[in-house]
């Protein structure tokens, strides 16, 4: 049987609100083996208005949120169309969109990623696949993490894949099963403290490096209930809003950055040590935070691999493109051992 070739665009908006990640990739299926090539990629920074709208979406009325869902879908379609024209994309089977997470409460059986796929489809005459998380939550899962299917089929040479985005999450194979779960918040908190200094993020962890660790705060953070829960488990902005603001009052931003960087490093290294991870591929914006990486390396024997820029920045968008390809072929694209749902399944709404 000959190779099957698919071309797809993946769209990803993370909780850290860095911008919209767009990844155009080629996927080749030969038997049961999959390979990929990133052909073009780009991050479209959010305007101040869009960043504000997405950040405040959790506080909107039902009517306002419904409007934002459609407006953001049109925005995704417009930006994708611009990307297609700029890069002269001709071969394209589908667009797969993660959307932007507003609510994530799997314990109550709901999660919401805005960006209506029908609005995207209205701008581009191609198949659009979206809403990848809801079905898993309805099936009793966390709706996250979803990228382990890509780790399983595209990045299997690593003992574990560790993403350092708004939240850190890890994916690994143990006893024939793919395990995955969120570890702790990272950039969603670090970026907030950097903004207080007048920066969008703490480049290289330079401000954290100058700060003083607040030992009492660090101890309180490490004792938060989430860290004692068994996997699978996931985090959302609601968890941050519920647990963090009351803990940080008058501390200096540099000291908060130092403390939360230490906290993240402790939780990430603790996970690596607990599962005796030999080597880990690190992606996401946190891979550029050299101070955080130094601290993780100092606390674990796990060999850390930092890949090329394209993989660091676009691995999640790449995997959502891949999930779209799997959905289009009616192949399972969600791993139940990672999310906690009743069984592996094929998820995503097709437009």
UniProtKB/TrEMBL annotation:
Pfam families, per the entry: AnmK
Protein name: Anhydro-N-acetylmuramic acid kinase
GO biological process: amino sugar metabolic process; peptidoglycan turnover
Claim: Transferase is one of the keywords in the record: yes
Keyword field contains RNA-binding: no
PANTHER family, per database record: ANHYDRO-N-ACETYLMURAMIC ACID KINASE
Source species: Epilithonimonas hungarica
GO MF term list: ATP binding; kinase activity; phosphotransferase activity, alcohol group as acceptor
Organism lineage string: Bacteria, Pseudomonadati, Bacteroidota, Flavobacteriia, Flavobacteriales
UniProt signal peptide: none
Key words, A-Z: Kinase, Transferase
